[in-house]
Structure formats: structure tokens, C-alpha cells
């Protein structure tokens, strides 16, 4: 699961008011090479919740991103390279996503998060 995906997921358990961002419990991280596309990165940047992204990247062992970022950084090749790597090339292969409000764990196996809810959570 890429951090791009993580940044767009939130808990939809019934009654949860604060389901974003999921905390990440890492068992295995893999890096998968992805073609660099600066245009995509510039277009997706405003949609990324930066603090959640940086915290998730650090949890996955990638401390290279700045604490804060604004659109002025999109002219920097160095920033775009780091942003690209964190957003698209780091994958949570095994672990769990944890709801910040309830603590409910959603397993991630072979890079796929299982977000199915139990009957009482719907």
C-alpha cells in the first residue's frame, strides 16, 4: 500500500468522528520503483494532507521530507524527488492501519489493506 493511498483513507466505523489519519503498524516495507512524473506530483500536492503524509513516511523509515511544505517547493527537483519516493515508491507490504479514535486494526497483507467492517461497526 502506497502512502498516497494511506493519505486518502479514513475510518468509516459507525460513530467515528475522527478517523483520519490511520496510524501505521509496520511489519514490512518494500520499495518499488515508479517512473517519475513531475506533473502528477504538482497536481496531487494540494490534495495531500502533509502532516499525515510526513508522519506516515517517518513511521515507515523515511525521514527525508520537510516538516512543512508549500507549493513554492514544487520548483525544486530535490523536493520533487523526495516527495515522489515517499508518496509512490514506499509500500507497506505487511502491517496494519489503526483507527486513531477506536484503535481498531485493519490488517495489510501483501500490500492490500483489508478495510472490511464487522457487522456491529456498520
Class by alpha and beta content: alpha+beta
Structural domain tally: 1
Residues in helices, as a percent range: 25-40%
N-end to C-end Cα span: 24 Å
Q: How many strand units?
A: 4
Identify the overall geometry.
globular
**Which fold name is given in CATH as the topology?**
N-terminal domain of TfIIb
Overall radius of gyration: 15 Å
- Average pLDDT, all residues: 97
| Largest sheet data | 4 strands, antiparallel
Order of helices and strands: HEHHHEEE
Low-confidence stretches: none
Strand content: 15-25%
How many helices in DSSP terms?
Answer: 4
Strand numbers in spatial order across the main sheet? 1-2-3-4
Please write the CATH class name. Answer: Mainly Beta
- The second-level CATH architecture is Single Sheet
TL;DR of this structure?
The chain has 122 residues and is of the alpha+beta class.
Would you kindly provide a written description of the structure presented here, covering whatever features stand out?
The protein has 122 residues and is α+β, with helices and mostly antiparallel strands. It has a single domain (3-121), classed as N-terminal domain of TfIIb (Single Sheet), CATH 2.20.25.10. The chain is built from four helices and four strands, in the order H-E-H-H-H-E-E-E. The chain has helices at residues 3-6, 38-44, 50-59, 77-89; strands spanning 23-31, 90-98, 105-109, 112-113. Strands 1-2-3-4 form a four-stranded antiparallel beta sheet. Strand 3 and strand 4 (112-113) form a beta hairpin. It is globular, with a radius of gyration of 15 Å. The two termini are 24 Å apart.
Amino acid at each position: 500500500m502506497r502512502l498516497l493511498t494511506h493519505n486518502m483513507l479514513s475510518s468509516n466505523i459507525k460513530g467515528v468522528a475522527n478517523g483520519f489519519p490511520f496510524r501505521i503498524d509496520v511489519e514490512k516495507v518494500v520499495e518499488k520503483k515508479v517512473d517519475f512524473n513531475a506533473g502528477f506530483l504538482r497536481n496531487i500536492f494540494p490534495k495531500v494532507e502533509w502532516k499525515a503524509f510526513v508522519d506516515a513516511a517517518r513511521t515507515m523509515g523515511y525521514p527525508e521530507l520537510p516538516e512543512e511544505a508549500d507549493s513554492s517547493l514544487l520548483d525544486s527537483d530535490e523536493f520533487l524527488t523526495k516527495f515522489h519516493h515517499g508518496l509512490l515508491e514506499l509500500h507497506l507490504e505487511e502491517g496494519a492501519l489503526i483507527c486513531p479514535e477506536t484503535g481498531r486494526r485493519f490488517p495489510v497483507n501483501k500490500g492490500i489493506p483489508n478495510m472490511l467492517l464487522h457487522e456491529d461497526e456498520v
